[in-house]
Every structure is written in structure tokens, then in C-alpha cells.
């Protein structure tokens, strides 16, 4: 896949100036702002930065803080610092579907499923919650059939209760 830049990028005053990618406050910043002030495509650059929510650098003659204020005033999305590529959060929260992010999401899902299987094997009550099979009065209130109940320490789970004890009819393990 070939990356195609907008046509105005070729006319930008900062084109090819990699020394201005990470500027320090002071002399370099002043040089960068002067370059932007004389740039013929500063308006398109600023519009693209606002539309993309760009959170870094000088774009269109404004730094990130100035662009954030302008974005609030004009209804553009606020600048967002996205997580790195190849992370599940970039895939899930920011919708990135590049190969690295998909691989990270697949690995995360695989680990999550394995954790859940291990919890089920260990008998974690939250993996198989307990649900009432019939309505039951609890204090002044009624607890409805199908409602989940918290497992209590010392109270046996439904699959540990002996048949015929009368307790099995009250609860059922949710599927």
C-alpha cells in the first residue's frame, strides 16, 4: 500500500525539514513559527491538524495548546494522544485496524479467554454466578426468579449441595 499525501504537502514551507520535527522552546520555536507565518499552505495545514486532532508539534502556525483552544471554539475534536500502534487499547478505543494492532488485540483476547478458563477451573464463583430458581423473600423485599445472588463464604454452591436437602430448589447455576 502506497501512502498518498495531500497535494498541498509538496508546497509546504517545512517540507523536508526534519530538523523541525521536535523543536525546543526558544530559537528553534521562533524559527518554526516564522516559517509557518510565511507558508503558502498554513491554512490547509491547520485545517488538517484540527480535523485529525493532532496533539504534537507546530501545525499551521499554532502549537498543540493553541490548537486545543481553537478546536474547542470551532467544534473540532480535541487533540488526542493515542497509544502506540501494536497495543490493544489503540485497537479497541481508537479503532486502529493495522496489522500490529490486530495482532495485539488477538493476543489480548487469547490471554483473556485463558484467564477465564483458569478461573472456571479454579471454581471462581463469578465465572458461574448463582441465580434464583424461584422468587424468595429476603428481609422486607422479594428477590425474583432469575436474579443473581452473591455467593457467601461458608454457604455451599448449588453444585456442592446434596440432592434432597431442599436447598437445590432455591438456586440454580446460571449457564
TrEMBL record:
Subcellular location: Cytoplasm
A matching Pfam family: Whib
Molecular functions per Gene Ontology: 4 iron, 4 sulfur cluster binding; DNA binding; metal ion binding; protein-disulfide reductase [NAD(P)H] activity
Statement: the UniProt record of this protein carries the keyword tRNA processing: no
Cofactor (UniProt): [4Fe-4S] cluster
Keyword Glycosyltransferase found: no
InterPro entries per UniProt: 4FE4S_WBL (IPR034768), Whib (IPR003482)
Superkingdom of the source species: Bacteria
All copies of domain 4Fe-4S Wbl-type, residue ranges: 13-69
Name the record gives this protein: Transcription factor WhiB
Keywords: 4Fe-4S, Disulfide bond, DNA-binding, Iron, Iron-sulfur, Metal-binding, Transcription, Transcription regulation
Gene Ontology terms: cellular component: cytoplasm
Main location: cytoplasm
Family per similarity comment: Belongs to the WhiB family.
GO biological process: cell redox homeostasis; negative regulation of DNA-templated transcription
Originating species: Actinokineospora iranica
Amino acid at each position: 500500500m502506497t501512502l498518498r499525501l495531500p497535494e498541498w504537502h509538496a508546497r509546504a514551507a517545512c517540507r523536508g525539514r526534519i530538523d523541525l520535527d521536535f523543536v525546543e522552546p526558544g530559537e528553534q520555536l521562533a524559527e518554526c513559527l516564522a516559517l509557518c507565518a510565511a507558508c503558502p499552505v498554513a491554512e490547509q495545514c491547520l485545517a488538517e491538524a484540527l480535523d485529525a486532532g493532532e496533539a504534537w508539534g507546530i501545525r499551521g502556525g499554532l502549537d498543540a495548546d493553541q490548537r486545543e483552544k481553537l478546536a474547542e471554539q470551532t467544534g473540532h475534536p480535541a487533540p488526542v494522544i493515542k497509544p502506540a500502534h501494536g497495543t490493544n487499547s489503540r485497537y479497541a478505543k481508537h479503532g486502529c485496524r493495522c496489522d500490529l494492532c490486530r495482532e495485539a488485540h488477538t493476543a489480548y483476547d487469547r490471554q483473556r479467554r485463558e484467564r477465564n478458563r483458569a478461573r472456571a477451573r479454579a471454581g471462581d464463583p463469578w465465572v458461574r454466578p448463582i441465580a434464583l430458581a424461584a422468587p424468595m423473600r429476603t428481609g422486607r423485599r422479594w428477590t425474583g426468579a432469575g436474579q443473581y445472588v452473591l455467593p457467601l463464604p461458608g454457604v455451599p454452591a448449588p453444585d456442592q449441595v446434596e440432592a434432597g436437602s431442599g436447598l437445590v430448589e432455591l438456586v440454580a447455576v446460571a449457564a
